[in-house]
């Protein structure tokens, strides 16, 4: 099957214009002048957006050259072969925007190093379709890089013997869950990239509010990289021109999960600090939990490796799309829901432990009700029409 071309992805002039604009913005003189008028976060965001907009067409060209193309089959909802290396543009835009602004603190160096490993793994998977076992091993190794650099969940007080062991295990479990949850959601145009943008915005707002400027700049760089990518990927009523691929979806999940554990989201309240990342990642985590339980219960899978390798149309976006009748409406619905939960996450550090637990419970109940309603509606839609003996 011949891979169709599109003028936007084939336009060298458009790509060159975006990259030239990014180069001007990144030049020391312009950057210095810009920061005297506007805050640094805006410069980081604009630079990442311009870089991503210019690099996406190049990523599409590269994907065609190396065979990183997602071809349609019975398990997928798209019907046209589509390049898969959009994540390369997102990753490079994020990294270059931080480098050009000189905001690489020691902990960010650790985060970017581990994220680079995840990106490389995803890119290799996009090109060569790696096994689930190998992917899991490399993901755990990337978590090891984080832990070695001191980036880990801090739950157990350092005064407790072997405190680092439970914290390290929690770090691995959290990062693996978030990484693969984002990867699972990358099954509908614009969904993973849009949720990454929203999550980055929420974490960035929280980071700047708590005085973690380096963390805030990282979130803003990721937000800008996603913003430059989305117009090529989310085009309601028209097909996507390029996909994130595993190189993008796993990178987004891993990076956001790592940034979430770096923040001090509450002053001395570990419950609130733990709830904030859960709220930020609520949609991916809820989908991961629901589909995992359903797949094991229905015996579609029986091992963790099978779960990671399984591809099916049973995720939250597939179920909602069957009810709403539109993929675009489904993505927008999940955008709005994620943004609303993000507002709860922003408010959480100021309302106290008890209220945060109530809010998390309410959000979970609402998500459960939505799932129950869409399952019921889907069954009604798929059920055969009832017959009647009454005369018409």
Structural key phrases:
392 residues; 2 strands; 1% strand; 17 helices; two-stranded antiparallel ribbon; single chain; disordered C terminus; 72% helix; mainly alpha
Topology:
Blueprint: H1 7-10, H2 12-26, H3 28-37, H4 40-66, E1 69-70, E2 82-83, H5 86-100, H6 106-128, H7 132-148, H8 164-185, H9 191-209, H10 213-233, H11 245-262, H12 270-280, H13 282-297, H14 304-309, H15 316-324, H16 327-347, H17 353-382
Care to give the gist of this entry?
With 392 residues, the chain is mostly helical.
The residue fraction in helices comes out at: over 70%
In the residues, how many domains can be counted? 1
- Low-pLDDT ranges: 385-392
Rg, nearest Å: 21 Å
Question: Major sheet: size, sense and barrel closure?
Answer: 2 strands, antiparallel
Secondary-structure content class: mainly alpha
What string gives the helices and strands in order? Answer: HHHHEEHHHHHHHHHHHHH
The count of DSSP E runs of length 2 or more, i.e. the number of strands, is 2
Give an overview in words:
This protein has 392 residues and is mostly helical. The chain has one domain (9-380). It contains 17 helices and two strands. The protein has a two-stranded antiparallel sheet. Helix 7 (132-148) packs across helix 8 (164-185). The longest helix is centred in the C-terminal third of the chain and has 30 residues, at 353-382. The radius of gyration is 21 Å and the shape is globular. The chain starts with 6 loop residues before the first helix and ends in a 10-residue tail after the last helix.
């Amino acid at each position: 099957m011949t891979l169709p071309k599109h003028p936007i992805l084939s336009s060298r002039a458009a790509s060159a214009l975006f990259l030239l604009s990014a180069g001007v913005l990144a030049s020391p003189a312009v950057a210095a002048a810009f920061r005297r008028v506007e805050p640094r976060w805006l410069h980081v965001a604009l630079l990442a957006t311009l870089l991503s907009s210019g690099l996406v067409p190049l990523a599409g060209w590269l994907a065609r050259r190396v065979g990183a193309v997602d071809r349609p089959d019975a398990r997928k909802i798209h019907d046209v072969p589509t390049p898969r290396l959009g994540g390369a543009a997102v990753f490079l835009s994020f990294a270059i925007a931080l480098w050009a602004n000189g905001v690489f603190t020691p902990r960010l160096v650790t985060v970017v190093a581990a994220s680079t490993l995840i990106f490389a793994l995803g890119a290799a998977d996009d090109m060569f379709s790696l096994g689930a076992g190998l992917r899991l091993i490399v993901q755990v190794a990337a978590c090891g890089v984080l832990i070695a650099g001191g980036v880990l969940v801090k739950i157990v007080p350092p005064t407790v013997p072997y405190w680092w062991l439970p914290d390290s295990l929690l770090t691995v479990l959290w990062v693996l869950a978030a990484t693969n949850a984002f990867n699972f959601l990358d099954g509908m145009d614009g969904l993973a990239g849009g949720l990454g943008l929203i999550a980055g915005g929420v974490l960035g707002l929280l980071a700047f509010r708590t005085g973690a400027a380096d963390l805030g700049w990282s979130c803003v760089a990721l937000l800008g990289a996603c913003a430059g990518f989305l117009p090529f990927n989310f085009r309601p009523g028209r097909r996507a021109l390029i996909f994130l691929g595993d190189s993008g979806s796993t990178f987004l999940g891993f990076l956001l999960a790592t940034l979430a554990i770096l923040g001090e989201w509450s002053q001395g309240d570990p419950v609130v600090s733990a709830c904030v990342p859960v709220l930020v990642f609520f949609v991916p985590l809820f989908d991961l939990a629901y589909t995992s339980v359903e797949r094991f219960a229905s015996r579609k899978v029986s091992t963790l490796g099978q779960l990671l390798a399984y591809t099916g149309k049973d995720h939250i976006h597939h179920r909602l799309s069957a009810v709403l009748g539109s993929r675009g409406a489904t993505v927008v619905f999940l955008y709005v829901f994620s943004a609303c939960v993000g507002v709860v996450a922003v408010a959480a550090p100021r309302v106290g432990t008890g209220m945060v637990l109530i809010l998390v419970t309410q959000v979970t109940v609402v998500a459960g009700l939505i799932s129950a309603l869409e399952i019921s509606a889907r069954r009604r839609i798929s059920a055969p029409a009832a017959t009647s003996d009454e005369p018409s």
